[in-house]
Each structure stands twice: as structure tokens, then as C-alpha cells.
Amino acid sequence: MQIWIWIGFITLIVGLLLLDLGVFHRKSHAIGTHEAVVWTLIWIGVGVAFSGVIYVLYEHDWWGIGHAHHVDGFTGMIEYLTAYVVEKSLSLDNIFVMALIFEQFAVPREYQHRVLFWGILGALVLRGIMILGGLTLLEHFGWLIYVFGGLLIVAAVRLLRDHSVEVDPKHGRVMRFIRKVFPVTEKIEGQELFVRQNGKLFATPLFLALVAIESADVLFAVDSIPAVFGVTRDAFIVFSSNVFAILGLRALYFAMAAVLSGFGYAKISLVFVLLFVGLKMILHHWIVLPSWASLAIIVGILGIGIIASVIANRRRAAE
């Protein structure tokens, strides 16, 4: 009977996406910082408010949603918020890559929102498949939790050793494959992903940028989804937290792409988030932390990174 909750949730998300693109952003325009900040706060508010829905669903065990993992309302709410914070913080790297991709393909600011809309819609589908596959594997092969934990520790070390994001979105294997399948126009054709010229279908640079963003998101999901598995294995909490974190990624990109490089310590704090979650997964048989404690530790790590970045920026400005 949980199917009705899933249908209702997916209907809600489709409705929000249609409202966003069909009403609020029907006309392509350059997203300013003020508008981006407002939408970032709106999406964060919606994502946090959904924790109340999680509480009601799991506290009253509607359609047996909390039965499989014995999750009550408070635990479900805290697990959702923790997974949401983890996913939101790890998505910061996506913003660097998005900015690089748009620069490489010379995508005008007025068309970037539409590319991100379709990119995030595709990301939701791909992440849904990856979450389902990951949870299925964990259910049948419980020892994989140690593998996922180890992968997170490796990801943390990699992030610590290399603070820059090096990608070549225009000349990767995926791009070469797309160019073999579709001829590509020399210039951007408005907001169109495909155009017909002389009766032949051509892909535009916007479509190549979209494919590059999707490919990058899959790579980032390899780190972020196992991190959420370290918080909870409840499928609905994992998926819903991922969805709401991703939905606000477009606005967050426009709000922070220009200033994110100034938050160097915030990025270092992501290393410790990955280490914490990875160790938590590996040591889960010996050390069991309450859900609220995990949330407090992760928020504390991120908060320290942000405060340290602000202090460092002020010192540099004063010199």
C-alpha cells in the first residue's frame, strides 16, 4: 500500500517542476543574484518543511511506511533532515562543474535555467534508479555497507588532496559519442536543444551542455548516494531527501556560482562530512549514534567550515 505515498510524492514533484518552468520561469531570462537567493530560500524552506510530512507519515505509520525499518516519526524526521543536509552540502561541487560546463559551451545566462531544469529532471530519474539499485544490493549483500563506507573515505582523501575540479566536458567520451549520433550546430539556436536544418535533425550546444551536466551528476552521485545510505536505508527518506536537495540546486547555482570560491574552508568541511559518514558506516556494528547526534555533528562540521571561511575572507579584505 506504500505505492500511494510514492504516487502522491512523485505527483507533487512533477507539479512543482511544471509550476516552476511553466509559470515562474516560462520566459528565458538571466537569473539575477536577488532572484536566485529568494528561490534558494524558497526551495530550502520547502525541503525543510517536508520533514513535517515525514514526521506525520512515519509517526502514524500510514500505509505501513515505517514498518519495514521500524522508523517512528521523530527518527524519520531527523534521518530525513540529516540526509537532506548531507546531500545539499555535497552538491556544492556540482555548482563548480556547472559553471565550468556553461563556460566551456558558452551558454548565455538567460538559457542556463532551462538547461538546468532538464538536467535536474534527468538527475532525479537517474538517482532514483541508483538509489533503488543500491538499496537492493544492501538488502541482499549487507557487507556492501563496508564497501560504501570505504568509498566515502577514499572520496574524502581525494577531495582533500585535490581542491580543484578538473573536467573537460567538450572532449570526453560521452561528447564524442553524442557527436557521432547527432550532427551538432555551430552556434546556440535560442533555447532549443534540437533543431531541423534542411530536413535533418541537429543537436545544439545546449544539448551537449545538458548531457555534460547529466554525466557529471552521475559521477557526484557515486559519492553522495552512499553517504545518504550511511544515514538511513529507508527508500522513501533516501529518495525524498535527494529530490528536495536537487530541486533547489538550480537556484543555489545562480546564487553561489560567483562567490563559492571564497568558501574554501566550507569545502574542506565536506571532507570531514564524508569521513564521518564513511566511518559511521564501517563502525555501525560497534558504535551506534542516535539520529539527532549524527545531524548535530554534520551541521556542526559544516557550520565551522562556513564560519572559518567568513573569518578568512574578512582578514584578506582587511589586509
Task: Describe this structure as you would to a colleague.
It is built from 12 helices and 2 strands. The model has no long low-confidence stretch (mean pLDDT 82). The protein has one domain. It is 73% helix and 3% strand. Helix 2 (33-59) packs antiparallel against helix 10 (249-256) and helix 6 (144-161) runs antiparallel to helix 11. With 319 residues, the chain is mainly α. The chain starts with a helix and ends with a helix. A hairpin with a 2-residue loop joins strand 1 and strand 2. It has a two-stranded antiparallel ribbon with strand order 1-2.
Low-confidence stretches: none
pLDDT average, as an integer? 82
The description of the largest β-sheet is: 2 strands, antiparallel
Quantity of strands, as a count: 2
What would the principal axes of the Cα set say about the shape? globular
- The percent range for helix content is over 70%
In DSSP terms, counting alpha (H) and pi (I) runs of 4 or more, how many helices? 12
Structural class: mainly alpha
Q: State the end-to-end distance.
A: 63 Å
Query: Strand order, biggest sheet?
Result: 1-2
- Kindly give the count of domains: 1
H/E element order: HHHHHHHEEHHHHH
Q: Strand-residue fraction?
A: under 5%
Rg result: 20 Å
